[in-house]
């Protein structure tokens, strides 16, 4: 998961029939936190939610790292509840709710500096401090040698925006250099792409995918903190280990080298062309942009070790009474970061908010559906794995769905729930992307609440959680992370709490269950999500993507299957 949604101001400060309540949770605690006044509609949605959250985030589950003993515990926990409630399994033949999928762990142990040759060759760029490079190809070593460099602007091919940076260009075997984010952000023009709000085309993942489709051997993105949404330390400061799905072709269709270069490194590269970085940006934004050879060749090598692992999604469903293949999807990731044996004080990354809270929410909604008559359409509950490793469990599910995704009505993703109390609002990530916003709004209005957009759309949070893999298949998805406007303490207080979480607990051992959490707001969110799913499952409606959205075209390709 990615950091919680907080305001730009907060980001500046800082620079993803159940069991009874646990016996050690006192009656007084439950009364204080979970018993709700009548005017907070939906705030007592499922009293078992707190127990699920507390259990999944406990030390017993060892941080829920993929392919670990801790993951086995959380998978069994979810599976046992699905079975108890009578949900149907994804694997009917073996009566199993597990959807196994294979991973590969790629561990670079030697990465060279990046060197250059040619008429306009800059000085070598040092690994980590001036550039980052890796390979997703599952091989012992890759060697990018004297690869011609080409500046391709933003590296985007977007027919719906009439934009093609690769038009008429052959980059087979070459190394492409490009800006991060997209032209809408760069210009702040609301008529260009999606204005300030990042589109899929602005994400670094897309840029590497497109470079590979174009046949590039190397793909380098210019890092700038504003358009990237994070500093160079996020790019270069963490572990270089990467995970991916194990594929038959061992990712040999990916570029040999993927990576980043710093802004200063890019300045030096373009200075050799007699240009500044800003000159290059303006060129990339011009209507008559054409890719530009950089008259230099890049060389870099990576040596790898790798390990193959097996992990699991957990998927169950309630079969629709009239239209069983038509379905609504609820999704949350059950994994986290596991343990750090080097730490002596607190080695367990419990991941209470990220994302025991979302998994507990998935269970609470599944339990509620199981207690009611089955709806006309099916309801699918997918607790996916390996999200922290790159949204891999949801990617596997998207390629191997329980029902055809053309028959998916829509979906709700839960990733980091609100633990700060009742909110006047519900923050929607990717607000305006689809009609799912409109479909949930009546259930919020019943609670006296309102929808509000993510305050930092330029950061591209919509593309950083599991719903994204279903969106890429055309499924309209709702992704909301609580609210920012506390009913009594206001927005500033909430922003302070979220900023404190990001600074002190996000992806750290401090992300632990707190018995003092006020879960009334979570309960209201879950109630709205439940009502949204039930309403869609008992209707003939098909929510649509907004006109011109980057996922609209793929949805329209399957329109005949929904008639």
From TrEMBL:
<dbReference type="InterPro" id="IPR007484">
    <property type="entry name" value="Peptidase_M28"/>
</dbReference>
<feature type="domain" description="Peptidase M28">
    <location>
        <begin position="313"/>
        <end position="522"/>
    </location>
</feature>
<protein>
    <submittedName>
        <fullName>Probable aminopeptidase</fullName>
    </submittedName>
</protein>
<feature type="region of interest" description="Disordered">
    <location>
        <begin position="20"/>
        <end position="43"/>
    </location>
</feature>
<dbReference type="InterPro" id="IPR045175">
    <property type="entry name" value="M28_fam"/>
</dbReference>
<dbReference type="GO" id="GO:0004177">
    <property type="term" value="F:aminopeptidase activity"/>
</dbReference>
<keyword id="KW-0378">Hydrolase</keyword>
<keyword id="KW-0031">Aminopeptidase</keyword>
<dbReference type="Pfam" id="PF04389">
    <property type="entry name" value="Peptidase_M28"/>
</dbReference>
<dbReference type="InterPro" id="IPR046450">
    <property type="entry name" value="PA_dom_sf"/>
</dbReference>
<keyword id="KW-0862">Zinc</keyword>
<keyword id="KW-0645">Protease</keyword>
<keyword id="KW-0732">Signal</keyword>
<feature type="signal peptide">
    <location>
        <begin position="1"/>
        <end position="22"/>
    </location>
</feature>
<feature type="compositionally biased region" description="Polar residues">
    <location>
        <begin position="20"/>
        <end position="29"/>
    </location>
</feature>
<keyword id="KW-0479">Metal-binding</keyword>
């Amino acid at each position: 998961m990615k950091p919680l949604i907080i305001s730009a101001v907060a980001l500046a400060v800082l620079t993803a029939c159940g069991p009874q309540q646990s016996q050690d949770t006192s009656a007084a605690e439950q009364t204080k936190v979970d018993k709700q006044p009548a005017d907070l509609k939906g705030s007592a949605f499922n009293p078992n939610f707190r127990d699920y959250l507390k259990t999944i985030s406990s030390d017993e589950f060892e941080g829920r790292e993929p392919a670990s003993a801790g993951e086995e515990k959380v998978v069994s926990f979810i599976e046992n509840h699905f079975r108890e409630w009578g949900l149907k399994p994804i694997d009917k033949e073996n009566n199993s709710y597990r959807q196994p999928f294979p991973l590969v762990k790629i561990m670079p142990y030697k990465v060279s500096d990046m060197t250059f040759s040619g008429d306009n060759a800059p000085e070598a760029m040092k690994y980590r401090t001036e550039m980052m490079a890796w390979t997703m190809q599952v091989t012992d070593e890759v060697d990018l040698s004297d690869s011609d460099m080409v500046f391709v602007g933003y590296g985007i091919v977007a027919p719906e925006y009439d934009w093609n940076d690769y038009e008429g260009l052959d980059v087979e075997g070459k190394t492409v250099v490009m800006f991060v984010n997209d032209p809408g952000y760069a210009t702040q023009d609301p008529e260009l792409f999606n204005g300030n709000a990042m589109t899929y085309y602005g994400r670094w993942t897309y840029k590497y995918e497109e470079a590979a489709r174009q046949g590039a051997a190397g793909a380098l993105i210019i890092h700038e903190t504003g358009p990237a949404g994070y500093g160079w330390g996020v790019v270069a400061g963490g572990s270089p280990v990467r995970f991916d799905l194990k594929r038959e072709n061992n990712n040999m269709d990916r570029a040999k080298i993927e990576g980043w270069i710093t802004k200063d490194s890019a300045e030096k590269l373009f200075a050799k062309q007699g240009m500044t970085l800003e000159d290059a940006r303006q060129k990339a934004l011009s209507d008559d942009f054409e890719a530009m050879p950089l008259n230099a060749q890049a060389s870099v090598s990576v040596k790898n070790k790798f390990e193959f692992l097996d992990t699991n999604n957990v998927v169950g469903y309630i079969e629709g009474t009239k239209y069983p293949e038509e379905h609504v999807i609820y999704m949350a990731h059950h994994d986290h970061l596991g343990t750090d044996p080097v730490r002596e004080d607190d080695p367990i990354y419990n991941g209470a908010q990220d994302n025991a809270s979302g998994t507990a929410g998935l269970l609470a909604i599944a339990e509620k559906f199981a207690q009611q008559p089955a709806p006309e359409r099916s309801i699918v509950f997918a607790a996916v794995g390996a999200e922290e490793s790159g949204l891999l469990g949801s990617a596997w599910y998207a390629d191997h769905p329980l029902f055809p995704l053309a028959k998916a009505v829509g979906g709700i993703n839960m990733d980091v729930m609100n633990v700060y109390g009742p909110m006047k609002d519900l923050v929607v990530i990717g607000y305006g992307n689809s009609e799912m916003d409109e479909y949930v709004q009546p259930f919020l209005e019943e609670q006296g609440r309102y929808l509000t957009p993510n305050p930092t759309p330029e950061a591209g949070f919509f593309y950083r959680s599991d719903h994204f893999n279903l969106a890429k298949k055309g499924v309209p998805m709702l992704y909301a992370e609580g609210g920012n406007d506390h009913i009594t303490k206001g927005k500033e207080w909430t922003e302070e709490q979220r900023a404190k979480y990001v600074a002190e607990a996000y992806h750290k051992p401090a992300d632990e269950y707190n018995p003092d959490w006020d879960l009334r707001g979570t309960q209201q969110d879950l109630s709205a999500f439940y009502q949204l799913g039930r309403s869609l499952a008992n209707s003939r409606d098909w929510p649509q993507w907004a006109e011109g959205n980057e996922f609209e075209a793929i949805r329209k390709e399957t329109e005949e299957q929904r008639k």
